[in-house]
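pasting for ref
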Amino acid sequence: MSDGYPTAAQKEALRLLCHHDGLDTERLAGTLAWRLEAQGFIAQAGDTWTATPAGAARRDR
């Protein structure tokens, strides 16, 4: 968190946790990865994830 304010990813994690009884670490990270993939910001390459050009462009915004 930055100066007590959650980042967009932290807000998303909090939103997910508030709407579920609980998520284990793997499922929570998987849900965040799924959302980034759905937005076209990351792509899966085998067992790893990589940023797409769109994701790399959004990194510093």
